[in-house]
What we know:
With 176 residues, chain A is mainly alpha-helical. Chain A has helices spanning 4-8, 13-42, 46-72, 92-120, 123-152, 159-167. In chain A, helix 2 (13-42) runs antiparallel to helix 3 (46-72). Chain B is of the alpha+beta class. Helix content of chain B is 42%, strand content 30%. In chain B, strands 1-2-3-4-5 form a five-stranded antiparallel β-sheet.
Amino acid sequence: MKDLIRVRSLISAEIEAVLNQQIKKEAYSSSIYLSMASWCDRNGFDGSADYFFKQAEEERHHQMKLYKYVLDMGGTAISPEITNIKIEYNSFREVFEDALDQEVAITQSFKNIAAKCHKEQDFVTMEFLNWFLKEQREEEYKARRALELFEVIGEEGTGRWQIDKHVGSIKYDSEA
Amino acid sequence: MIETGSASSSLTEVFHTKHGSVQQCDKSHQWLIEFAGKSAKFDYRCLLKLKKAVYSIDIERALLDTAAVPDVEIIFLCACEHCYVLSVAEVIALKELLQGTFVMLELNHLITDCLNRLVY
């Protein structure tokens, strides 16, 4: 008997399901970053607003990369419904705390998918995921560095203005 | 898995229960479901849609529901020519048939995967 499901799709139903969940998480991330950009813009933090607009675009790019992969492998990519996006933040610092939490959650999620790929011996998807795992190093680094600016510069006086000016210049250029 | 029928039909039984059976046609890449007095052919996408539709039926709610409404579930699949109108007992039977089918398809995949690795 032919393995017809394998003929139709390179990835298993379980891997397809977790990749679709990840597509939703990336879409949620993108929306959250847009909301952060909106809050920063409304409160006069132009540098941070630009930073979060770029982050939102990056997350959208990640979402599309996953979306295309599921389709290319013969699966069904599901366009997600995104709700419950936080609009208001209590402070400038809280925005960056939430951003780091978001990146940590995304890294954890990719680790879970990688664990499933190892369990199923799906080395093709594992190889695809390597790009995201490396990307998460940069994403977490930038979010952590941004939050550290609050400790290094301090929020007193013109501190928040300076933090806002420096956020855009955070770069991750490790070759490791 | 039992090879049935003539060479031209090339149907292979995937799973059966006392209520129905599922057979696979390697040539047309379809599955023939014999259930509730009808035979219906499903391609891969429609089979997955049927599985999703049946699995999403809340059987417990249907059994406990005392409202004076007809005790039937209509399974209608988008872009698929087949439709089922089933009682709760039939839904349970179809779910059992599909669960067994997908276990057997998964088992077939695991065995094929292992054999392919030995060959290539």
